[in-house]
User: What shape does this take?
Amino acid sequence: MATATKVTLSDLVKRLKSLPEDQQLYYAYAFMEQLDYDEKFDAAIESNPEALRELSERALAEHSAGRTRPLTDEDFALDDD
Assistant: This one.
């Protein structure tokens, strides 16, 4: 697997083009959904910068209260569907 710092957009497109069309469409849709989500998140933070501070304070409070756990490799496992 390539590291994020060495992958170019042309690398990604080349890899995607090597996949069957249904998989290309799946990844294209997933990528567009992520871009839409990122844009909405950025707009929400820009319109209310205090919100990010509040979220971080809440996360730190939950961690201090022992309501968090370390992430494991399984937390990042992709489903087969």
About this structure: The chain has three helices and no strands. Residues 21-47 form the longest helix (27 residues). Residues 19-66 form one domain.
